[in-house]
Every structure is written in C-alpha cells, then in structure tokens.
Amino acid sequence: MNTKTTIQIRRAVITDLDAMCDLSDQINAQHHAAAPKIFVQKTNRELDRQFWHGTFENPAACALLACDGEQVLGFITMSWNENTTIPFLYRRRICRIGTIVVSDAHQKRGIGKLLMDGATNWAREHDAVEIRLEVFDFNRNAMDFYTAQGYGVQSHIMSKSLE
C-alpha cells in the first residue's frame, strides 16, 4: 500500500497563527542557541501572535504554509517593496523573504523548496523583479539551501558589538 502524502502550499489565514507560532518557537530556539546575544531564549506567545498577525494586515505581504492535510509542516513569509525615495537606486519592486521554517521532523523532504517556489510565484504575481533574503552567517545549512535554490551573495551586512 502506498502511503505517500501530498504536501500542499496554501496561503496562511488567521486561524493558522498558533501553528506559525509553534514553528517560530522552533526556529527561534535554534537561532538563540547559535546567537544568544541577538535572539531571546523564549518569546511571549501573544507578542508572537501580534507579530505574525501583521502579515495578514499588510496588503504587500503574505505567509504561505506547507501542509499535509491539516498538519502545518512549515511556513514562509514575504513582502514586496519598491524604492521611491533613494535617487541613486532604480525603482524596482523587490520581494523580501522574512522567515522560512520547516518543522524539524519534516526537514530534507523538499518542503523548503516548495515554500521557496511558492514565494517565487507570489513575487512574480506582484510584479517583483528580484527576491532577497537575509541569513545569519552561523546558519550554514540555510546558506547551502539558498545557494541550491539559485541565490547568491549580493551584499554583506556587517556588525560590531559595542557591549
């Protein structure tokens, strides 16, 4: 008997907030372990809900979910913006990936690629000419994943602690 599941990518809705917060807790814990001076150890659930809720209120933003039936396996957030103020930059619509996370139990199954493909489609539907994202230097697995998806380094964000 074939028990193969089909992963569906769909737009998130308000009732998905708890599932998004659960996955956000997972990725936040991973980021806190790698960069405890940047990421808090545990976040306030209500503040998380408010943060992710903002995705639903912004007409230039979207959250997509990867689902197996009713089970949420991952999500991606993105938004677009267009330069209208900096005179030495072209006016181009850019899609920015905010967060992408796949549950630990479902990694290495192509779900991240499906989410990135969904984000690419959304960006094209909104006339974006480019997709950008930021990844922390400690997250080598993510960098390898993005490179495999065709992303390359465009700039570097550098920091210096003053503490």
Secondary structure elements and pairings:
Elements (H helix, E strand, L loop, with lengths): L7 E4 L5 H18 L10 H13 L3 E8 L2 E12 L10 E10 L8 H15 L4 E3 L7 H9 L15
Parallel strand pairs: 4-5
Antiparallel strand pairs: 1-2, 2-3, 3-4
Attribute tags:
163 residues, alpha+beta, 5 strands, Ribosomal protein S18 acetylase RimI-like enzyme, acyltransferase activity, transferring groups other than amino-acyl groups, GNAT_dom
Description:
- 34% of the residues lie in helices and 23% in strands.
- The protein has a single domain, classed as Aminopeptidase (3-Layer(aba) Sandwich).
- The chain contains four helices and five strands.
- Strands 1-2-3-4-5 form a five-stranded mixed beta sheet, sandwiched between helices.
- The radius of gyration is 17 Å and the shape is globular.
- The model has no long low-confidence stretch (mean pLDDT 92).
- It has 163 residues and is of the alpha+beta class.
Shape label: globular
What is the CATH C level class, in words? Alpha Beta
**How many DSSP E strands?**
5
CATH superfamily, called what?
Gcn5-related N-acetyltransferase (GNAT)
> How confident is the prediction overall: mean pLDDT?
92
Task: Provide a count of the helices.
Answer: 4
Output the radius of gyration: 17 Å
Indicate the CATH architecture: 3-Layer(aba) Sandwich
Helix content bin: 25-40%
Q: What is the straight-line distance between the termini? A: 60 Å
Low-confidence stretches: none
Quick synopsis:
The chain is built from four helices and five strands.
